[in-house]
Amino acid sequence: MISPLAFVDPAAKIGKNVEIHPFAYIEGDVTIGDNCVIKSHASILNGTTMGSGNVVYQNVVVCAQPQSFHYDKAERPRVVIGNDNVIRENVLIAGSNRHEDATTIGNNNFLMNKVHICHDVHIGNHCVLGISVSVAGACQIHDYVILSSAAMVQRKVRVGKFALLQSGCRVSKDVLPYAIFGGNPPAYHGVNTVVIQQHLPHADERLLRHLANAFRLITAGNFSLEDAVIKIHEQIELSPEIRDITDFIATAERGIIRYVEDED
Predict the structure, then answer these.
(1) Residue 193: alpha-carbon gap to chain centroid
(2) With DSSP H G I counted as helix, E B as strand and the rest as coil, what are the percentages for the chain, rounded to 5?
């Protein structure tokens, strides 16, 4: 199932039932798990470890040299990819700045055409990255996130679980979980109700109302984030989802997107 027209270094570790199409290029320090498909002109470079069931489309580059001024060429970049991901045409995934670190992509993610993942990014599970999405270095994209086409996530930003960035949105601060943000500058556009209900069986109207009330306190109140968290604890039942939001705020290092006028 490996085309004689593909280049596969003899040192590469290739699992069972792997398809490698003509003109694919696979270097030696590469591990590809069972049942993967590597299509024509994809380049899987040294430092890549890939799980099972992944499909890598044409012109993808995995573990490219980091586009970082902090990268030392003596280092060996790494990329670790989980299982059952779809990586469409022209995606570039950069390796980590240091060998002891890794750019990581979890399981069941869908990366569409021209997605650019920079060095040391960590993507969770069940995420969708739309056409021409760009994720800068050292960002964290948590589970069930949707980044719509041409969204741009700047360096070291965290995007919380079940968050949705609308098309063309550019963010330089952390993005709250369970919420929709859009526009430039980005603003809160409501609870990500559809995706939450698709993947959280217990997400009833009560939970959605509690999430909406928490975001109202965070985005519409004339008080600090610290006071907003206090009011959330006082006024809203502390479900795991509400705790996700308050814990996310407590660990923010780059600030939180709150509303258009947020300049702090």
Answers:
(1) 20
(2) 15, 25, 55
Tokens standing for residue 182: 């859009």
DSSP track, 8-30: E-TTSEE-TT-EE-TT-EE-SSE
Residue 173 near residue 155, CB atoms below 8 Å: no
pLDDT single digits (tens) 90-102 = 999 999 999 999 9
Residue 152: both structure tokens together: 């741009």
Distance between CA atoms of 253 and 38, rounded to whole angstroms?
A: 38
What is each CA distance from 136 to 12, 89, 162, in whole angstroms? 29, 19, 20
Q: How far apart are CA 134 and CA 112, in angstroms?
A: 11
**Residues 91-137 pLDDT 10s:** 999 999 999 999 999 999 999 999 999 999 999 999 999 999 999 99
For residue 217, give the H/E element and its range. helix 205-219
Q: Which token pair is 138?
A: 């050292």
Q: Is the peptide bond before 22 cis (omega within 30 degrees of 0)?
A: no
